[in-house]
Amino acid sequence: MRSYPPNSPKAAARLVALTMLADGHVSRIEAQTLERLGLPKAFGLSVEDLSAVLQGLCEDLLCSSQGDWCRPVVDAALINGLLAEVTDPGLRATVLRACVAVAEADEELADGECVVLMQAIQQWRVGTLPSLKAHPA
Question: What is the per-residue pLDDT across 18-61, written as a single tens digit (0 to 9) for each?
Fold first, then answer.
């Protein structure tokens, strides 16, 4: 897995990209949600930069899978490592809001998205999520 400087725009954006991939695919509505909310700019990135971070994450995940296509897209050790790259409280709040927006975008909260969000809450010691709509079962 490539590394980014702590609290860098790419480290923050990669956590959002991880949330986008956590359900096994990236949907158009997730990308549109990020653009609508101006999230690339909030991280100091262009839409193209955000796309490059997403592509890099996909490449890294493929390389690290070592042919094991049956394992989950994300695992606890990977998530914890990426969460550790963001230590600034303000940036953490922005990242968490973006991750929640991505998870809510398609109105279906997937297990992988829940894993990313819950680990962020636990590792970053967040009291509550910024907003999480109730999703039908």
Answer: 999 988 888 899 989 988 988 889 899 998 999 999 999 999 98
In order of 13, 59, 67, 124, the CA distances from 8 in angstroms are: 9, 20, 30, 17
Q: How far apart are CA 68 and CA 119, in angstroms?
A: 23
C-alpha span between 46 and 40 (Å, rounded): 6
Q: Are 12 and 45 in contact (CB under 8 A)?
A: no
CA 3/CA 42 separation, integer angstroms: 21
The structural domains of the chain, with segments of one domain joined by +, span 9-124
Torsion of CA 46, 51, 57, 63, to 10 degrees: -140
Amino acid at 51: S
As a whole number of Å, the end-to-end CA separation of the chain is 35
Select from 16, 13, 18, 2 the least CA-distant residue to 112: 18
Is-contact 88 8, C-beta < 8 A?
no
- Which amino acid is present at 80? N
Q: Can you spell out the DSSP letters for 41-86?
A: HHTT--HHHHHHHHHHHHHHHHHHHTT-TTS-S--HHHHHHHHTT-
